[in-house]
Design goal:
It is built from twelve helices and 20 strands. The protein is of the alpha+beta class and 547 residues long. Strands 3, 4, 5, 6, 7, 8, 13, 16 and 19 form a nine-stranded mixed β-sheet that branches. It has a nine-stranded antiparallel β-sheet with strand order 9-10-11-12-20-18-17-14-15, with no helix packed on it. A hairpin with a 2-residue loop joins strand 11 and strand 12. Helix 2 packs antiparallel against helix 3 and helix 4 runs parallel beside helix 6.
Length: 547
């Protein structure tokens, strides 16, 4: 790791430069001392100060022992203290106020910073900063003790913060309250499956947040049991990374769903766990190596962990040799109803209970598939379960066609919306069933779609392709543009973008009902939609291959 340590320091220096360049120095402004932002908020300033103090204390940094930087940091902590609520809490000004969870996220960096000063300030040049930190931490503990939370990951951020406070605060009665409150949270089991999935399924963000909390709990409580959850999750995360280094986020239940994310936030976690995991150390080491190599190649300085390398200085001596992520796997995660499969540069993903149920990717080029259904209240194929048989995954959707029947007795009101319509007898006079079988083949997949039940339902298959690519067929070449699409009546075409190539074959079309009426319109500026259409009942196979 020593050969990459300079990059970690350089990244911290760039963030420190940003802090200096964007700190509000106008004494007449209410946010004097903070980092300039669209609204007054504490979190970014706290995070920047942690990085800046690591730089100040690191002999390799351009800011080592910089008096002017220390003055700016002191000013920033005055701002932070000013915006701490009377109960010790902080706001997250875009949505949460007097927020214990957001206080916990802030406290994480505050306590890291406190321990940095404790470890490295041998001449007590930062005693005044340390005192300001202690005051903020002391008050923040009360917010964690008395506050509540909204989401699953908040619980573990709060418990980690309480554990850290218990090791810093000198007031024994407050320490006892921290520990008591932490143990109240631990009545609830930690929400990690055997396959490593947390409740929020947030590969792009909150998995890393929970992992950080688990590592912090292990360090602060001296208990390695919390690392088991990190081990499981990171092992799962190795199967969430596509060939271009992006993280698959389409099954997330949080705001990172569908967002393009990279592995930088997992770097220190993979590196840390490479030395702690009993079974996955070599894989984690290779993953950490690949993440930092990707960051360096792309001039990406988002890795922000100098403070952790200094606190856990044994990480600086880790030797990184092998690199890369697993390139061969086929895994079904039953908790979330997700399939992830990879064959070299090809990945495909299947999702239960999602409109966009299939994604296929060659290197950096990804397509998505959904099936539009116009049947009573149903608008899309959504598989309620997935079955794996040999090299095929089977996904099924079944729905009944129904109508209300008249009440047998006069209702209590004439107002339709107040009537107990849920108690009406239903007439079920039809059903439809769509079965999708995804079979693994060389360089791709076969997607067989067959239907049963009532006939004449207009069905459409939608394949979304990225814009700014080209479609090649026997009789045309088309550039893919947003808010646009075409119907493929038969045959196949070749799609290419940035030297990534896909071949899609098996087209069919018997109607042109692709949008309008009660059906969704999937067109958008980022996708070109390829449609295939037919009426139930039918049996078609679409082949998708990398070329």
């Amino acid at each position: 790791m020593k050969k990459y340590y300079d990059y970690i320091v350089e990244s911290a220096d760039k963030k420190t430069n940003y802090f200096i360049s964007n700190q509000v120095m106008d004494k007449n402004r209410p946010d004097h001392g903070s980092i300039e932002g669209p609204f007054i908020d504490v979190k970014m300033t706290v995070y920047s100060c942690c990085t800046a103090i690591a730089a100040y204390l690191n002999p390799k940094s351009n800011f080592y022992s910089s008096k002017s930087l220390l003055d700016r940091i002191s000013l920033a902590y005055d701002f932070i203290k000013k915006y701490q609520r009377e109960d010790g809490s902080f706001d997250y000004a875009s949505c949460n106020f007097k927020s214990a969870p957001d206080t916990a996220f802030i406290l994480k960096r505050l306590t890291y910073t406190y321990w940095l000063i404790e470890k490295y300030d041998s001449v007590n040049s930062m005693e005044h900063i340390k005192n300001k930190l202690y005051s903020i931490i002391y008050c923040a503990a009360n917010a964690l003790i008395t506050g509540g939370f909204h989401t699953p990951n908040h619980r573990w951020a709060i418990t980690a913060g309480l554990a850290a406070c218990s090791n810093i605060i000198e007031d024994k009665s407050l320490v006892e309250r921290c520990i008591d409150r932490m143990n109240e949270y631990f009545i609830e089991p930690i929400d990690c499956t055997e396959d490593g999935e947390y409740s929020e399924r947030s590969s792009g963000n909150y998995n890393a947040v929970v992992n950080t909390a688990m590592i912090m709990l292990s360090e602060e409580l001296g208990d390695i049991k919390y690392l088991e959850y990190v081990d499981r999750n990171l092992n799962m995360m190795l199967m969430m990374i596509d060939a271009d280094g992006t993280i698959f986020t389409e099954n997330s239940l949080r705001q990172d769903k569908g967002r393009k994310e990279y592995g930088a936030k997992y770097f220190y976690q993979f590196l840390y766990m490479s030395q702690k995991s009993k079974n996955n150390g070599d894989k984690f080491s290779a993953a950490a190596h690949q993440i930092i190599l990707n960051a360096i190649e792309n001039n990406d300085y988002s890795i922000d962990c100098l403070h952790l390398f200094m606190l856990y200085d044994w990480m600086q001596d880790i030797e990184l040799i092998n690199k890369g992520f697993p390139t061969q796997y086929n895994k079904y995660f039953p908790y979330s109803g997700l399939v992830r499969a990879r064959k070299g540069n090809i990945t495909y993903s299947l999702l239960q209970n999602e409109n966009n149920f299939l994604f296929f990717q060659n290197n950096a080029t990804r397509l998505g598939m959904k099936i539009g259904v116009s049947y009573f209240q149903h608008r899309n194929f959504r598989a309620d379960h997935i079955v794996h048989k040999e090299n095929t995954y089977i996904m099924k959707f079944k729905a009944d066609g129904w109508y209300y029947m008249p009440f047998k007795h006069e209702p209590e009101t004439q107002d339709w919306w107040q009537m107990d319509n849920a108690s009406r007898e239903l007439l079920i006079n039809s059903f439809t069933e769509i079965i999708v079988e995804i079979t693994d083949i060389n360089d791709g997949i076969d997607v067989r779609i067959k239907t049963n039940g009532i006939d004449r339902i207009p069905i459409r298959v939608e394949i979304s392709l990225p814009v700014s690519g080209k479609l090649y067929a026997d009789n045309f070449i088309i550039e893919t543009k947003g808010n646009n699409g075409m119907i493929l009546k038969n045959g196949k075409f070749h799609f290419t973008k940035n030297n990534d190539n896909l071949v899609i074959s098996g087209g069919f079309a018997t109607h042109e009902f692709i949008r309008g009426g009660y059906s969704e319109d999937s067109t958008n500026e980022l996708s070109y939609i390829l449609y295939m259409t037919d009426y139930t009942n039918f049996d078609h196979t679409i082949t998708i291959k990398a070329k």
